[in-house]
Design a protein that fits this description.
Elements: H1 17-20, H2 26-33, E1 39-43, H3 49-62, E2 71-75, H4 78-90, E3 97-100, H5 101-116, E4 123-124, H6 129-138, H7 145-160, H8 168-175, H9 183-200, E5 202-203, H10 205-218, H11 220-229, E6 232-235, H12 243-253, E7 259-263, H13 278-281, H14 283-286, E8 291-295, E9 297-298, H15 303-314, H16 319-322, E10 328-329, E11 338-344, H17 345-361, E12 369-373, H18 379-388, E13 393-396, H19 405-420, H20 433-441, H21 456-477, H22 483-496, E14 505-509, E15 518-523, H23 539-553, E16 556-567, E17 604-605, H24 610-615, E18 627-628, E19 635-636, H25 639-644, H26 656-673, H27 683-692, H28 697-701, H29 707-722
Parallel strand pairs: 1-7, 1-8, 2-3, 2-6, 4-5, 6-7, 9-10, 11-16, 11-17, 12-14, 12-15, 13-14, 15-16
Antiparallel strand pairs: 18-19
Helix pairs in contact: 2-3, 5-10, 6-9, 7-21, 10-11, 10-12, 15-23, 17-18, 19-22, 20-21, 26-27
Length: 738
C-alpha cells in the first residue's frame, strides 16, 4: 500500500465510509480508526501525516461517529488550513472547521466580546511596527526600520511565552536569548507599547489569543459554551505550539480527552518565535492513556535521501533527539546524494546553476528544483548565476536581493558618493574601491563586526556585507575600477535578475522551505559558521541548526546535492570547513560519534569544473610533515586543532586573562582597519598565543596563523600584550587592508 504524493486534480469522493480508508498504510489506518480519547501521532517527514489526520476526520464524519460542526482542526498557517479544508471536502467531510489558532480565537473573541466585556471588540492592529516606533520614541530611543522589526519580534516572543514587561529581563537571562537591545530597555519599550494600545483601544495579533484565554478563564459559562460547540480537536504541527497556544488549547478541551495531536520533534525549527516541542514530547505524561502512533514510512524521498536524513539525526543530542523517528523509504532506489567541495562561492554558485540546467535538459521541471541556503543574503550569488545560465527562478519567503530596501538604499548612497567623487568627506582616507564602499555603507549599518544574534538587523548587515564582498571581488577582477564602475555593475546585475517567476527554480531559506518539497534539492553554503550559524552558541541552538538541516534534506524527493566552498572569493585563502553535521556521513570525513553507525553513500566531487580552472591556476604544494598534538601526540588533521597544536579534547593551559586582552586588542585593530576580526587573527590563533605565551619573535612566528607577514604587522603589539604591557590601538602606518 502506498500514500501517493500527487493526487489527481478532481478525485472521486469515496462512496462509503470504509472507502475513505482505502489506500492508507497500516499505521495511517490506525490513526484514522483511533477516534476516541487522546491520540498522539508522531509523524516523520514525508510520512503522510496530513493524509492520515484528514482521513481520520473524514472517516469519523462519514461513519456518523463525529458531527462535522463539533470538530475543530487547527494548524499554523492559512495555507495549511486551506489545504486541510480542501482535502476534507474531497473526502466528503464538509462542515468541519479547519483554521489557524488565531483565526479560531478571533471568531470566538468577536462573538463573545459583547457578552463578556460589553461594546464592540477593539480594533485589530494589523501592523504593530508603527506603534512600537512610537513607544520607543517615548522612551527617548529612535530605532531604524530593521531595529524596529527586531524589537517588534521580541515583544511578540514575550507575549506568546506569556512574559509580562516586568519579567522580560529575567526571561531573557533564563533562556539565554540574544536580545536585540538591552533587556531593561526593551522591557520599557514593551511596557510603553502596551500602554499605548490601551490608550487607543486597539489590540494586536497576540492579544487575540491572550484575550480569548482571559475570557475562557474568567467566564466558565462562555468556556462551557465553547466546549459544547467543539467536542473533538485535532492539532497539526504540534511541535510548533507556543505556551500561549497550549494554554488556549487546554481551555478549549477542558477536562475531556477527545484530542488528537500530530507532530515531529525533529522538525522544531522556530523556537525563536516561542515554539517548543515539549508539549508534544510530554503528551504521554500528561495523558497516560493516550494512543501513540508512529508514522515512519516515508513516501516522499528515495532510500538514499532517507538514509542521509536518518544518519544526520543519529548524531543529535537532547530531548528531541531521544524521540527521533527512524524513517523507512517506500520509494524505489534513486541516485546517491552528491557532496561537492568548491574552491570559492562564485564557483559553487556557477557550478550549481550548470547542474540545474542539465537537470532541466534531462526532463526535471524547473519548478521541481530548489536551491536552499541558511540566510537570505546568500541568494544574490545564486540569482546571478542562474540568470547568467538562462535558468528561470523565483524567490520564496524573501525579496530579490536587489529589491531589498537596504540594498536599494545602499545603491542610492553609492551613486551619490560616485557623483561627488573626492568632494565627499566620507571617502577621505579611503584609497581603494573596497575601502570606499565600506566607508559609504558604514552610514547604512555596515560594521566590520556582525551584530550579535539573529533578526532583521542581522539580515540587513548580511545584505550590506554581501555588497562589500561584491566590491572586493569586483576590484580584484578589475584593478583600478572606480566607484562609478561598481555602480554601473550593480545596475546591470539588478536589471539582469528580473527572471520570470513562473515555473522557475525555487531559491529559499531553509526556514521558508518548511512544508514544501521538490524533486531535486541543492543545499548550498554548508560551512561552519553558516551551518550551524555563527550565533548558535548553546547546545540547544546548535541542535536546532541540525534540525534545520534535516528539514532541508527531507525536502528532496530524488536528487539531493550538498555543497560548500573553502573560501569566499576566487583566490582567497581556503580556511573554511564543511559543516560538522556531515562528519561521519560524507565520504572521507571523520566520524562524529554517531549513535546509529550510519555511513554516507555517494561520492565527493572537489568541484574542479571550468569556472574553478579558469579562476584558480593549480599551485604545486610541497608535502608537509604531520602535525602532532603537543599533549597526547595524535596526528592532527583539523585546521583549528593544528593552529592550537593540540586536540580540542586535550586539556588547555590557556592564560584566560591574556586571551581576554588579546581579544579586546584584536577587536580594536579590526575596527580601525575596517576589517572583520578574523582578518587580524582567528580565535584559534588567539587561543594558541594565549596558551604558548611567546616572549620572542621566534616563538611567536611558529604559531599557526601568525607567519612572517602578520609578525611584521602585529608582532610587537602581541609580544607586548603577552608581557603585560600596554599597547597603542592604532594600526601601523601603511598597513594595507586587503
Amino acid at each position: 500500500m502506498t500514500a501517493a504524493t500527487h493526487s489527481t486534480l478532481f478525485p472521486q469522493v469515496p462512496e462509503t465510509p470504509d472507502a475513505v480508508l482505502d489506500g492508507l498504510d497500516p499505521e495511517q489506518r490506525e490513526v484514522a480508526l483511533a477516534l476516541h480519547g487522546p491520540v498522539c501521532v508522531l509523524a516523520g517527514a514525508g510520512t503522510g501525516k496530513t493524509r492520515a489526520i484528514t482521513h481520520r476526520i473524514a472517516y469519523g464524519v462519514r461513519a456518523g461517529i463525529l458531527q462535522p460542526a463539533t470538530v475543530l482542526a487547527v494548524t499554523f498557517t492559512n495555507r495549511a488550513a486551506g489545504e486541510m479544508r480542501g482535502r476534507l471536502r474531497q473526502l466528503g467531510a464538509t462542515g468541519v472547521q479547519a483554521r489557524t489558532f488565531h483565526s479560531a480565537a478571533l471568531r470566538q473573541l468577536q462573538y463573545f466580546w459583547p457578552k463578556a466585556v460589553g461594546g464592540e471588540l477593539p480594533r485589530l492592529l494589523e501592523r504593530k511596527v508603527q506603534l512600537v516606533a512610537e513607544a520607543a520614541a517615548r522612551c527617548e530611543l529612535r530605532l531604524d526600520r530593521n531595529e524596529l522589526r527586531d524589537v517588534t519580534s521580541e515583544i511578540e516572543w514575550a507575549k506568546v511565552t506569556q512574559t509580562v514587561p516586568a519579567d522580560y529581563p529575567a526571561a531573557v537571562a533564563k533562556t539565554q536569548r540574544d536580545a536585540p537591545r538591552d533587556p531593561a530597555v526593551l522591557s520599557q519599550i514593551y511596557s510603553t507599547y502596551e500602554q499605548l494600545k490601551r490608550d487607543r483601544s486597539v489590540i494586536d495579533f497576540e492579544d487575540v489569543l491572550l484575550l480569548t484565554v482571559g475570557i475562557l478563564q474568567d467566564r466558565s459559562d462562555i468556556a462551557e459554551h465553547v466546549r459544547g460547540q467543539y467536542q473533538h480537536f485535532v492539532v497539526d504541527e504540534y511541535q510548533d505550539v507556543s505556551p500561549l497556544q497550549q494554554r488556549l488549547l487546554d481551555l478549549w478541551v477542558g477536562d475531556r480527552d477527545d484530542l488528537c495531536v500530530v507532530g515531529d520533534a525533529s522538525q522544531t525549527i522556530y523556537s525563536f518565535t516561542g515554539a517548543t516541542p515539549d508539549h508534544l514530547l510530554n503528551f504521554r505524561t500528561r495523558h497516560p492513556g493516550a494512543t501513540v502512533v508512529k508514522l515512519v514510512r516515508d513516501y516522499r524521498s528515495t532510500p538514499q535521501v532517507v538514509h542521509l536524513a536518518n544518519g544526520l539525526l543519529s548524531q543529535a543530542h537532547g530531548k528531541a533527539a531521544d524521540h527521533r523517528l527512524e524513517l523507512v523509504s517506500q520509494r524505489e532506489k534513486g541516485p546517491e546524494p552528491v557532496y561537492t567541495e568548491y574552491s570559492d562561492e562564485p564557483t559553487e554558485a556557477e557550478s550549481t546553476a550548470r547542474r540545474i540546467r542539465d537537470l532541466i535538459a534531462a526532463g526535471v521541471p524547473a519548478g521541481e528544483i530548489a536551491v536552499l541556503y541558511r540566510v537570505n543574503s546568500q541568494s544574490e550569488v545564486y540569482e546571478q548565476a542562474l540568470a547568467d545560465a538562462g535558468v528561470p527562478y523565483q524567490l520564496r519567503g524573501a525579496e530579490r536581493f536587489f529589491e531589498r530596501a537596504e540594498v536599494r538604499e545602499a545603491g542610492t548612497a553609492l551613486r551619490g558618493a560616485a557623483r561627488a567623487g573626492r568632494n565627499d568627506s566620507l571617502l577621505d582616507g579611503a584609497e581603494d574601491l573596497a575601502s570606499q564602499v565600506r566607508a559609504v555603507l558604514s552610514t547604512k549599518g555596515w560594521t566590520s563586526r556582525p551584530p550579535a544574534g539573529s533578526g532583521a538587523v542581522r539580515d540587513r548587515w548580511e545584505s550590506l556585507a554581501a555588497l562589500v564582498r561584491l566590491a572586493e571581488d569586483f576590484e580584484a577582477a578589475k584593478p583600478g575600477a572606480t566607484l562609478t564602475d561598481l555602480v554601473r555593475e550593480l545596475d546591470e546585475r539588478a536589471a539582469a535578475q528580473h527572471a520570470p517567476t513562473v515555473q522557475g527554480v525555487s531559491l529559499a531559506s531553509l526556514h521558508s522551505a518548511k512544508g514544501l518539497e521538490w524533486d531535486a534539492v541543492f543545499l548550498v553554503g554548508l560551512t561552519e559558521g553558516m551551518m550551524p550559524i555563527a550565533y548558535a552558541k548553546t547546545d540547544e541552538q546548535v541542535e536546532e541548526e541540525r534540525r534545520l538541516m534535516y528539514v532541508g534534506i527531507t525536502r528532496a524527493r530524488v536528487h539531493l546535492s550538498l555543497s560548500w566552498a573553502l573560501s569566499r572569493s576566487p583566490g582567497g585563502r581556503a580556511s573554511r570547513r564543511p559543516t560538522r553535521f556531515l562528519n561521519g556521513l560524507r565520504p572521507g570525513s571523520a566520524g562524529a560519534g554517531t549513535r546509529g553507525g550510519v555511513g554516507g553513500g555517494g561520492g565527493i566531487d572537489r568541484g574542479s569544473g571550468r569556472a574553478a580552472a579558469e579562476r584558480a591556476p593549480a599551485v604545486e604544494r610541497k608535502p608537509r610533515s604531520p602535525v602532532r598534538c603537543r599533549v597526547c601526540g595524535r596526528t592532527l588533521t583539523d585546521a583549528g586543532e593544528m593552529k592550537l597544536m593540540r586536540c580540542e579534547e586535550c586539556p588547555s593551559d590557556m592564560d584566560e586573562a591574556l586571551y581576554g586582552r588579546l581579544y579586546d586588542w584584536r577587536a580594536a585593530q579590526a575596527t580601525l582597519l575596517g576589517q572583520p576580526d578574523f582578518c587580524v587573527f582567528t580565535e584559534k590563533t588567539l587561543m594558541a598565543i594565549a596558551e604558548a605565551v611567546p616572549t620572542t619573535e621566534g616563538e611567536l612566528v611558529v604559531i599557526a596563523g601568525v607567519g612572517n607577514r602578520k609578525l611584521s604587522r602585529f608582532g610587537a603589539d602581541v609580544l607586548a600584550i603577552c608581557a603585560g604591557e600596554a599597547v597603542d590601538d592604532r594600526p601601523e602606518d601603511g598597513v594595507d587592508e586587503t
